[in-house]
Amino acid sequence: MEPSNDVALDIIVSNVVSVFRTRCHLNLRTIGLEGTNVIYKPEMGKVLMKLRKPRITASIWSSGKIICTGATSEEEAKLGARRLARCLQKIGFKVRFSDFKVVNVLAVCSLPFQIRLIEFTKNNRPIASYEPELHPAATYRIKNLRSTVQVFSTGNITVTGPNVQSVASAVEQIYPLLFECQKTVINHTHM
């Protein structure tokens, strides 16, 4: 049985992490006092700010570096970062939105079959590793895509990579390898 090329897998992006710089010093206490939806964490030297639309959480440092998490697409991550910069401008900082980049994407995908993890790991060493005592998933690292795939026996996979394109490519690359290690389901029909 060959894997068919027309299999449509739903790759659901669940978190896009992005960074940008404001190119100005940020007074965290001012943000904590005047910002909305903020949590000031002086012991950690940062402020957390949440946006509702798009739903993101930002870690803000006084150096002007900001990390945004929670977006579900690269476009949403950029929109959220820009809205956050605008919020800081309204508080009174001379923010210049710069050096925006997506640094990490987490996605999940459910395959239509279960997987024999031990066979998958044996077939794909040293790229694949599986230590059931430590973690229920096999890990498959794709160096050229800078992506990591966690494969569960249920057929669920989680993929992390530097951007949405590399995550999608990682799923395309691993699918045929998983397909050949699928568990065969035996149907017991009663007469």
Automatic annotation (TrEMBL):
Is Repeat among this UniProt entry's keywords? no
Q: Where is the signal peptide?
A: none
Chief location category: cytoplasm
Entry keyword annotation includes Aminoacyl-tRNA synthetase: no
GO molecular function annotation: DNA binding
Where is it localised? Cytoplasm; Nucleus
Give the keywords, sorted: Cytoplasm, DNA-binding, Nucleus, Transcription, Transcription regulation
InterPro entries according to UniProt: TBP, TBP-like, TBP_dom_sf
What is one term from the GO cellular component aspect held by the record? Answer: nucleus
Biological-process GO terms, alphabetical:
DNA-templated transcription initiation
- Can you tell me which family this protein belongs to? Belongs to the TBP family.
Q: What is this protein called?
A: TATA box-binding protein-like 1
What's the name of its gene? tbpl1
